[in-house]
Write a structure and sequence with these properties.
Oligomer: homotetramer
Number of helices of chain A: 18
Radius of gyration of chain A: 23 Å
Cofactor (chains A, B, C, D): NAD(+)
Largest interface: A-D, 59 and 59 residues
Keywords (chains A, B, C, D): Hydrolase, NAD, One-carbon metabolism
Enzyme class (chains A, B, C, D): hydrolase
Number of strands of chain A: 17
Protein name (chains A, B, C, D): adenosylhomocysteinase
Strand content of chain A: 5-15%
Catalytic activity (chains A, B, C, D): S-adenosyl-L-homocysteine + H2O = L-homocysteine + adenosine
């Protein structure tokens, strides 16, 4: 797409694929609202007080229908919002159109190039000359990373007059980041520094447990079916990794009638797989007899081109981990004589010259549930996103109180339990209430939290406070240590 | 669409939605071939001998990618083929385009009107002045019905000179059938009679057991997800009917995490549901608390507008039985003040004026797995369709031998077992072989059949021989009595 | 045990293990009554009219708690009853004691020798000099067989004066049968002929489907746990045969967390296993890597001593098919140097001399669910046994009407459905009722039967009418052809 | 039983039910060894060095076959051992006999009175005049409690001359504890103080996660079947609490075909239940319609007599949580006119006078899986017990090094992973190995630990070091905060 910003009649900026899909997007947003009771409860509880009045929020998070409900919850609470996606394939164009038309500045479309992706990220962060956003909703940390790298470059430039050099790195994507920063630097050598000064905090939509397990259990078969229409029953499926994502994937495949084999490095997770009747083997053990391969490890270099060469004709290879380095796409692309046949967008058949057999790679090795289907369903995202809203509210409310230092915080357990409780009514559940006597017996407050912080979190969103001052810590680690 | 026949460069007739989708269709057909080992085995075994040389075959069967592999198996065995779909929503336009371009005369597109539907059926039967097809592959019996009604009308006309009167019936669809016959009669008063004379037999793709159970287990959640993206886990789902279709649907919903409630009339099927931990209640018991309703009964008038009025906001209502009379669409459309909002094709929200709440109806009450997804997966259809090929071969081979009388035959058990065996290799299975001693002990031949005819058929396609003479029996009953 | 008949104070004959267990048996019978709503409904419906008044019934059927409720249903309807077990391990001694004390003549104990077994069978048939029973409830046909062989011998003896010669057969068990007949012949050369004359009919408790599937799903893991306490999760289990018994076993093992491998001869059943994610291989493929082996085939010579030699140390080998010829016990016993270590009754470790490793054989290769646990649970047996009561009632009611000829009948479908309906209330189910219009549409009566005779029977008990005259057909074949 | 100590020929003390069961116990111990690869690996790795040489270990832990393998692992490593059970119903008498005869001093039998229970505990702690054990393996903390209370009493007595007064408490069991201490005090006023001085540490077999989930999934249905033979399929089962124990129970019941309803106080656990298709309601909502009730909460006062009064006839009520205060047994016993009918040991029917209907209570409200079946299977216990052995080794090895202070420690993650790894081979699993590059990428050592300490522990045994000096902390809290 031509990289020029467009404007709505009201003057709000955007860049989306097709504004005519806005009506369709609106209808699906309305459906999703019914499935997202946590967000709707936030609107009901906090909307009247307009707590985000005056707050500028930038989001870098898959621009889907569910995210649209999140965005409109933020705006319903008074925020001004600019948004980009955090994955080149994950935008739903009708969702982007509806939000761009009705609610917020959106820069996102399905099938961005990496160049376009970072242009969108920069647009989402650019709130004009007075600085960047007050708050960031990040997923994967790319928005935060851009500020971080920008500040670093501006500091070097201020001290040495030296511009960042894209050719200093082999990483193609990082070259793009450096180019953007370099080009911006010439025009405004304090842009990212001003952003840093203004920024109150970031809440990071990185989750574990609940949404990974149940979301992937839903969206893995959905992606497989939409991309390939293949019958899962009777097939041999290999799930690489048996963390929460892997558990969700393995459960879905097993329930659909596949014979599931798990690869694992952790003996405890391996035992868990065995207890469910799953075989635990290495990828090498099974590479030539399986029909479906799914990577879920959060690690890199899981399925290499040398594995793919040995697979059965039309074996399906896909990734459902956040980053796109689990499957060796580079090795595949560079394999001598390999031929790529695009069946349809996000579904490619790669044919090896020696055998003239091919494998089916989904979403170019990126998140297949977002690339080939619509990601986690609304109900799951409602849990995660309600946590995000609450984290943003907390950061904004306490921005000047000193309650949060410059560090990474996990959302407190009682808020996690509150978010869960907001979702029970939709499913017709009745919670049991502790008596005082029982609460005392197990040493918890009657109203919770009932468990220690690390126990089975619903959705471990966390947040970073930047305390309003000096340099800030980046989201460099998961404080919970979850995979 | 304008109802005019088009022609390929080679002169073959067709009418499809968009010929430019032929390449895409071809790629998906090639994928499907790998998943349809039974059909490919037929090509390998019978292709060289060209047993269908000279045979004209008309098909009336969902014009999908899988059916494309069936059609090209028939042509690979020497047949000439004309095809229409047996459901107004079930055509996959890229499949139709690929077949129209490459292999057979196709008259089908997704979203036909009833008028268009019967025009297509007539086109598929029309092989020119020398008569109709030699063989019919039918699904639901519409092609056979048209001949039957045509012959009846021609007989009346010959005796009395009287033309059929469309206004003699209340049934809107049957009015269309009579109109087509009436209009044809004037031009050619012996057309259907000549068809009857020529016709050797029909094989009917009406199945039970294997493909209903496993096919629906796959395609019900697929259709739900593509149409609504709704999370199934945690929801209350009502499955009306617990035959094979219902069993497949209930299993899929339960495995996806729904709480499933079954309605049944048959106490034995009800007991089976209970044994799986499913609740058995009446629709009235649960109509206002469930989230998803699926009809699978094969009966009519299952979910009436008075039920729909009482449902929760955004309850999903869909049908996966063959005919579209399980859900009271007429009652819904005529409900005073009801409002229909089309979210996307095949997904409508109907809003009731009293409550201003709506329900989501899929595929206008027709087969939701074909209307909203891609129907049964290739592997399942390979079993059914291989049976069809074998039935057609048998009818054609024995057309003059008198082996088959003018009546309905179920495919013999040993062919059923053979078809199953053709599908085992793809899934890596090793069958155990009986010793002579063991075979004698249980009184079966070593090579099978191992079970009596009615025992757990793979796919009870049946066939009708017309014996080459005089009036023929129509497919008026399922000789197996299956639901 | 010393083979002498004992008598209660009231003069009724019996031979059981330990009369002091009668109270315990009575308590468990009372529990079972609550779980057997079909039988209790028979007592309520038919008891007042005493339809069995004057009928003498002999039963040869596992003498368990559930059978006790059957027996007391027969007596509650007016019958006089004599009973033996149809398996040397299946008697529950407390059940036998309670019935012997309170209700009927019982000859049965857990752990009979074959000699004792046939003595008990003869006792159960012996109603004194006026002839045998009016009706037989048989399971496996041994009671009927004894009459059949007895009549044959008496006919030969009458014609030739020749006595049966036990040494004429290699089969050890049949030698015992011939000996009993020979010894009886000398005392009374017309005993079995008189029995034949008197006998009205037999109902055979041989079932398929419902009770095999759900009963074994319950009782297989129960037997495994009671016999070995082994953890099933994580183990590799081989199920030989995937009929209804095999399906129940495989489901139970899979659900308990085992990885299940199926062996099959029938490609359709093999496909069904694959569709559930089970691997289908031959026994030879997996004999040395599996932990648990279960035979369910109804065939013979399934697991031979040469298989057992290759198994892992402490592999568990058991049979849940009716007959004890699936596992090669003879081969095992005769294996040179093999050592048998009895862990506890019905749980033996057999150690092979070459490897000094052993396998665990349950119930000496006989029905492990009856030998090691308590068989099918009451609720399942209530379905089967209610069918038996209804069959007996029908035979007795029509004994002089000529309604039934000398042949084998399957219970009519509407009675099968009635029995199912009697069991729904206990599980809280509400059946849906057809409207007249719907019933007409699918061409069934409103009140059923809803399905053709062979469709998914609840419990295919069948009955043999002997028409009150001349020679009678024996139960030599399953008229349904089920495995 | 008469409470007198007996002695083996070799002079070792014991008190068990029936020494003649020792051979049977030995056979089952040998079977269990094959299922407990972790313990056998400890014998192989550590046995030769005899690291426990000179150590006196007291255990208070269910005296089962599995515990026998633990005890003989401790003795194989050089320890001297005295043992009692930690539950009045959980001893397996044949296990106790085998150990008493062959390996260690045992004071335990199935069905102890509370009086007997504490006598056994005292015997297990009594190593003669030189003080108590060097190490304790505790489960539930009763052995540690007795020392704690003893020291407290001795301190008071030393200061004030006052003896503990059993009548000072309402708690019947604590009265017994005080009586024992009081009676001992007169004879030896420094006994518990000397024990305290000597004690190096305690490892507590209180676990979470792995063994609760998989162990209860196995042993709950086992206990139900052995106690009641009831068919689980089709029943409505209520599981109170959805922690790991509840999850295992609910999974087992669902898989066996029950309809499962969960009660929960924690909204996150409630959401998890809903995601599995389970209904979440309060006990009051369902008390009168369910068939089976299981308490798993770890809390108290869950099922009260007022609930039990409203249950269906023959509803089954049982507890699988550690303590016996989840079911209101006291309220039941004291209910006016209630009648208790013992079906068999651990299976009682309680009949209410108003309705003359009864409920079935298992194991008198105590751990039903140990009371009615054989507890967790060997493989599960091997994981827990291998952790115990490793904890004991660590405490003993570091007794003088000061590595551990007087506080509670959770076993380090790498040992937890090691224990898991020892169990993979038995199940045929192949672990994947990280490359250096991958390990660096996710910031873990190649050889693990791969997860943070609190992540999905295999078995959170913990240990208390007493540092060899002064007063010691008691096990008053679970440092992990798990339910």
């Amino acid at each position: 797409m031509a990289l020029s910003v467009e404007k709505t009649a009201a003057g709000r900026e955007y860049k989306v694929k097709d504004m005519s899909q806005a009506d369709f997007g609106r209808l699906e947003i309305e459906l999703a609202e019914v499935e997202m009771p946590g967000l709707m409860a936030c609107r009901a509880e906090f909307g009247p007080a307009q707590p985000f009045k005056g707050a500028k929020i930038t989001g870098s998070l898959h621009m889907t229908i569910q995210t649209a409900v999140l965005i409109e919850t933020l705006t319903a609470l008074g925020a001004e919002v600019r948004w980009c996606s955090c994955n080149i394939f994950s935008t739903q164009d009708h969702a982007a159109a509806a939000i761009a038309r009705d609610s917020a500045a959106v820069f996102a479309w399905k099938g961005e190039t990496l160049q376009e992706y970072w242009w969108c990220t920069e647009r989402a962060l650019d709130w004009g000359p007075t600085g960047g956003p007050d708050l960031i909703v990040d997923d994967g940390g790319d928005a935060t990373l851009l500020i971080h790298e920008g500040v670093k470059a501006e500091e070097v430039y201020e001290k040495t007059g030296q511009l960042p050099d894209p050719s200093s790195t082999d990483n193609a994507e990082f070259q793009i980041v450096l180019t953007i920063i370099r080009d911006g630097l010439k025009a405004d050598p304090k842009k990212y520094t001003r952003m840093k000064e203004r920024l109150v905090g970031v809440s990071e939509e990185t989750t574990t447990g609940f949404d990974n397990l149940y979301g992937c259990r839903h969206s893995l078969p959905d992606g497989l079916m939409r991309a390939t229409d293949v019958m899962i029953a009777g097939k041999v499926a290999v799930v690489c990794g048996y963390g929460d994502v892997g558990k969700g994937c393995a459960a879905a495949l097993k329930q659909a009638g596949a014979r599931v084999i798990v690869t694992e490095i952790d003996p405890i997770c391996a035992l868990q797989a065995l207890m469910e009747g799953l075989q635990v083997l290495t990828l090498e053990d099974v590479v030539s007899e399986a029909d479906i391969f799914v990577t879920t490890t959060g690690n890199k270099d899981i399925i290499m081109v040398n594995h793919m060469r040995k697979m059965k004709n039309n074996a399906i290879v896909c990734n459902i981990g956040h980053f796109d380095n689990e499957i060796d796409m580079l090795g595949l692309e560079n394999y001598p004589g390999v031929k790529r046949i695009t069946i349809k967008p996000q579904t490619d058949r790669w044919v090896f010259p020696e055998t003239n057999t091919g494998i089916i790679v989904l979403a170019e090795g990126r998140l297949m549930n977002l690339g080939c289907a619509t990601g986690h369903p609304s109900f799951v995202m409602s849990c995660s996103f309600t946590n995000q809203v609450i984290a943003q509210l907390e950061l904004w409310k306490e921005k000047a109180t000193g309650k949060y230092e410059k560090k990474v915080y996990v959302l407190p357990k009682h808020l996690d339990e509150k978010v869960a409780a907001l979702h029970l009514g939709k499913l017709g559940a009745n919670l049991t209430k502790l008596t005082k006597d029982q609460a005392d017996y197990i040493s918890v407050p009657i109203e919770g939290p009932y468990k220690p912080p690390h126990y089975r979190s619903l959705c471990v969103g966390w947040m970073v406070s930047f305390g309003g001052k000096e340099t800030r810590p980046l989201l460099e680690e998961d404080p919970m240590g979850f995979e």
